[in-house]
Each structure stands twice: as C-alpha cells, then as structure tokens.
Amino acid sequence: MNLPHSTTHRQDGEAAELMVLIAAPRGFCAGVDRAIRIVELALQKYGAPVYVRHEIVHNRYVVDALKAKGAIFVESLDRVPDGVPVVFSAHGVPKAVPAKAEMRGLDYIDATCPLVSKVHRQAERAHEAGRHIVFVGHAGHPEVIGTLGQLPDGAMTLVESVDDVANLSPPDPDMLSFLTQTTLSVDDTRDIVAALQHRFPAISGPRGEDICYATSNRQEAVKAIAGECDRLIVIGAPNSSNSLRLVEVAERMGTPAHLVQRGIDIDPEWLADIGTLGITAGASAPETLVREVIDTVAKHRPIVEQVVVTAEENMIFKLPRGLEPAAA
Ligand code: SF4
Asked: Are 62 and 36 in contact (CB under 8 A)?
C-alpha cells in the first residue's frame, strides 16, 4: 500500500477532522475512456446527431454530457432513423444487432470494450471446438445479453451462483468450457469456478477467469482500505455491475457501504460519529464526481484526504479504424 499524499481542509473551532481514504485505482477504466472518446469522435466526424444504442457506459453524468453534445441514446436499433450513424455501447451487443444494422445499411461503430470482445472470441472458439459453454454472469446485464448473443440459442448456459452449478445438466460433461462476465466479484467468481471444476473436472476455461484488470484492481483497492474505514462511499450508478461489486466487497469486510451517483446523495448522518471514511468510484464514474463527493463531505466535516494506491494502471485501448483523432 502506498500513501503518496494527504490534504487537510480545516477551519478553527470546527468539529473533529474526518480522515478520508481515497482508493486508487478508482473510476474510469481504459474501456470506458475509449467508449466515450468514440462517441465524441463520431460526433466530430459525422456531426450531430449520433445515435448510441444503450447508455454508452452506465453513468448518468457521462450520458447527459454526451447528450448535450448531440448524442441520442436509444435502447433499440428500431429507434435509429435511416442514414445516421449509431454507436454500440462498451458492454457489447448480440451478433444480431450489427447484422440488423448492416441489413438496414446503417453506419455503425462498435465501442465494445476489447476485453469484452475477447470473451466473445473465446466463446466462438469453444463453440467451434464442439464445447458447451457455462457462462458465469448476472442475468439481464447488457454484457451478459451481448455475450450470450454471440452464439446460437442453447450453446451457452448462464450460471449466477454456486447453487446454480449443482443444477447444471450439460449435454456432455467432458466437452465443457466456462467463461465469465468481466465485472464480477473476484471472490464469488473464484467460488463458482471452483464448484464448476469440482463437478466437471474436464471443464476448460481461461486461466483464473475473465474478470478484467479494472474490476479486480478496484476491488483490491477497496479491500486495502475497507478495514480502516468506518464507512465507505462508492460513486457509481445503480445499474453499474462493477460499482455494485465494490459495495459488496466493503460490506463483506464488515464496513457499511453506500452507492451514490452525486454529492447530493450523501446523507449527513453517514458522516456523524465516524473517524475514517473511504471513497472509491466504479469504472464508469468520472473523476469530477469523485471530487464533487469529497467536496460535499468537506461541507459537513473538516477532512484530511489521503490517497491509498494499490496498483498503477497504464492501459490504453486503440480506437476503431477510421475514427482516430486528427493530428494536431
Ligand atoms: S470495466 Fe473492464 S471490461 Fe468493462 S469497460 Fe472497463 S476495462 Fe472494459
């Protein structure tokens, strides 16, 4: 654990200082950064409006900022008029979606995170090798819908828990592979994968699982501070899988945790009678919201900020061809 700096906000005569531990890494990952950049570059290239199928990333602030620049968010391609470009979100889409866009002659740009696309390709390869796939993920999440939609119906079975593993009845237990959603709980997934390997010793899969670097780093960063904190605030959207997992990680360590979208969501009661507060942000929450939350906390209590760094991240994903920014 690395404690690079601390900052004090204090006025004489004020209440006791609240130590605020800020987890790092937190907030935007390379996939989210790339997806937002794709929408911005598409707006520059084509002009407004650019349609986006589903929230580009699960964050209202980000979506509203792109709306203000001319992006229009829809849930179905049927809502995209002919002749305008459409971007697919970072979560990935079932194969039927680009197929439909092509049928309609729509110009589409795929902002699927390359780490999600990697899982799609793994699914295709396992299917081509004649293996049935057990996919570990949360039913209804857009990434899960997108990954299940890479293969024909029945080629994958979704499991969400260790209990689901006991109920599996695959076509051939010797021809099984597992894959996972990228934004799961590292600990839960380890248990589910162990249960799969115990029940189906011949099952193949990625080394470890497909949980992405950003998800695991943010969970590790919370584990590093949660034990020191009386309470933890996670900045993220209620439909953001990786943000919800951060809340769970803290709660499992016995630290009460709250998901907030903005500073205004903070209940002042959370800050009364505590000595240390932890703050982190899910992969789709921008740093400006982290600052907003810290500043809101500082309005209620004098604070001392300390950033706790558990990993350095330098990941950058390439932009799709044809959408590179113009040279300065
Ligand atoms: S959380 Fe992981 S999988 Fe999702 S966009 Fe970020 S890097 Fe990609």
From this structure: yes
Cα 231 to Cα 276: distance, rounded to the nearest angstrom: 7
Residue with CA nearest ligand 1 atom 2: 212
With 0-12 / 13-18 / 19 or more C-beta atoms within 10 angstroms meaning exposed / middle / buried, residue 316 is exposed
pLDDT tens digit string along 214-267?
A: 999 999 999 999 999 999 999 999 999 999 999 999 999 999 999 999 999 999
Task: Judge whether 44 and 245 are in contact, CB under 8 Å.
Answer: no
CATH number of the domain within which 43 lies: 3.40.50.11270
Q: Say if ligand 1 is within 6 A of residue 119 CB.
A: no
Domain count, the chain: 3
242 CB less than 6 Å from ligand 1?
yes
Q: Helix, strand, or coil here: 71?
A: strand
Q: Is 283 in the pocket of ligand 1 (CB under 6 A)?
A: yes
Specify whether the CB–CB gap between 108 and 85 falls below 8 A.
Answer: yes
Nearest to 184 by CA among 124, 235, 132, 246: 246
**Rg of the chain, C-alpha, whole Å:** 21
Please tell me whether residues 245 and 296 are part of one structural domain: yes
Q: Are residues 302 and 234 in the same domain?
A: yes
